[in-house]
Specification:
The protein is α/β, with parallel strands linked by helices. The chain folds into two domains: 116 residues, Rossmann fold (3-Layer(aba) Sandwich); 43 residues, no CATH class. It contains ten helices and five strands. It has a five-stranded parallel β-sheet. It is globular.
Length: 170
């Protein structure tokens, strides 16, 4: 199962990669209530795509225990929706958290929670031949424009998309 936080699901919808991931990830996709509220409140393209996938049942919504949210927010300096996503992923052993938030990534590392990022998802989609090399490069350019990535991360991702370096699991 893959659990999305707000930033990652928005980025994947913006670069039109969300549907590819939803079709290829057979174990299911979840978001917590807080993420749903955050990602569907606008009338943007990405919000409309996510709303439609929720209506179609391709993304499931699940509530989380409110008890741990405040502690995670304080301990790791997280927004509420990132804390909810981590709690939801922890509640489903074997799940993978999709996050691009630096503090959430640090929390995952300390909590031994497997995670992935939008860049990693894009690279894996190309490696699995779900995207052509040209499409992968184009989507990477879009992702670089929408996301807040360090230049080094984008350069590394370009090498990986071009097949010069293999993707490493987290």
């Amino acid at each position: 199962m893959i659990v999305f936080d707000s930033s990652t699901i928005i980025l994947l919808a913006k670069i039109e990669l969300l549907d590819t991931i939803l079709q290829s990830y057979k174990k299911g996709c979840l978001i917590p209530e807080g993420v749903k509220r955050e990602v569907t409140q606008k009338d943007s393209f990405d919000a409309m795509v996510i709303k439609k996938r929720l209506e179609e049942g391709k993304i499931k919504i699940k509530g989380v225990s409110r008890e741990k949210i405040g502690k995670l927010m304080n301990d790791f300096n997280l927004d509420k929706s990132e804390a909810e996503a981590i709690i939801l992923a922890l509640a489903h052993p074997g799940s993978l958290l999709a996050t691009d938030d630096k503090n959430a990534i640090n929390a995952c590392k300390l909590l031994n929670l497997p995670f992935t990022t939008s860049l990693d998802i894009l690279i894996r989609a190309k490696e699995k031949k779900l995207l052509t090399p040209k499409d992968a490069e184009h989507k990477l350019q879009e992702l670089a424009g929408y996301g807040r990535y360090k230049k080094e991360l984008i350069e590394d991702a370009k090498k990986r998309v071009r097949g010069k370096i293999k993707c490493k699991p987290h």
